[in-house]
Amino acid sequence: MELSKKHHHVDKIFWSIALPGFGQILNGKIIKGFLFVFLEFLINVKSNFNQIILLSFHGKIEEAINITDYQWLMFYPCLYFYAMWDAWRDAGGGKGRFSSIPFVVTAYFVTVGCIYSPIFKVFSIKLGPVWLPILSVIPGLLVGYIIKKTLERFVK
User: Fold this and answer.
1) What is the pLDDT tens value at each position of the chain, 156 positions in all?
2) Most exposed residue of 26, 54, 88, 122, measured as fewest CB within 10 angstroms of its CB?
3) Residue 140 and residue 6: Cα distance in Å, rounded?
4) What is the DSSP letter of 97?
5) What ranges make up the beta strands (E) of 5-153?
6) How is residue 96 annotated by DSSP?
7) Dmax over Cα atoms in the chain, in whole Å?
């Protein structure tokens, strides 16, 4: 099997990481893709996400926290991880009943990271609304993968 066809679903997940909706558009799900793109832009603008990212990368965590609209930002992880899973599944990835579990659990962990980002500190340093959610991806994927494997083993 040709490498590009074998990893076709991986391409779609990377495009969804770049911007939710791109994977769907590449899968031929144009309306769904543009809906995800629209929702991403809406949440991005309403939560001030681009400015939050910029400030966080410049080390201005308190400023980022102060301009964050958490009511909107908390929608982002679910949209982001659902769009990734959906594009991956439609492209032929995600075989099995529990393929969505790592994505769901990671979205939950990232949302919780978002919620606690204004107060959570590591060595007296606030991580803010970008860094704590990003770091929450790692335990989210690990826990999600363990749950998925456990369910696959015990649920027939």
Assistant:
1) 444 555 677 788 888 888 999 999 999 999 999 999 999 999 999 999 999 999 999 999 999 999 999 999 999 999 999 999 999 988 888 788 899 999 999 999 999 999 999 998 887 788 999 999 999 999 999 999 999 999 999 987
2) 122
3) 26
4) T
5) 121-122, 125-126
6) S
7) 52
